[in-house]
Amino acid sequence: MAAIALQAAHRVPKSRTGALDIGAATALKPLDPDVVSPAIPAFFIGHNRAGLWVAREAQGRAGGLFLLKSSAVEFANGRSAPARCALVFPAEAFELDVENQGNPLVALAARWLEGVTRHLARLAR
To answer: Which superkingdom, per the lineage (predicted)?
Structure first.
């Protein structure tokens, strides 16, 4: 099933020094109705801070974590079937803020990676 690809620029907040705040999740903003029709389901597809692929329906009704970009796109297309969907690829990382309906093993890996990252940060101090 084909999908319409759009590009959206969502920015990660910067700290007072001007550096990117890596710990901040990009807020996904509502789509402009002049760009995407409310009748067309839209999904944000992108990476989270851990580098995993995230697919999230624009209205927050569905979302999941995936190892591969193709899996995230397939999830979006499957959730919008039989209609087509718009795919929005934010320029910055964003976190899944709804229940993971994607690959449960990838969600476990994400939690493990977060724990390892926190542990390494403590060791580096």
So the answer is: Bacteria
Residue 74 has pLDDT above 70, yes or no: yes
* Cα gap 72→98, rounded to integer Å: 15
- Look at the chain and report how many structural domains it folds into: 1
pTM above 0.85, yes or no: no
Question: Rounded CA gap, 123 and 119, in Å?
Answer: 6
DSSP string, the chain: ---EEEEE---PPB-TTS-B-TTPPPPPPPPPTTTS-TTS-EEEEEE-TTS-EEEEETTSS-EEEESSHHHHHHHHHHHHTTS--EEEEESS-----S---S-HHHHHHHHHHHHHHHHHHHHH-
Residues near 25 by Cβ (< 8 Å), separated by ≥ 6? 49, 93, 94, 95, 97
Round to whole Å and give the CA distance between 102 and 3.
19
Residues of the domain holding 50? 4-124
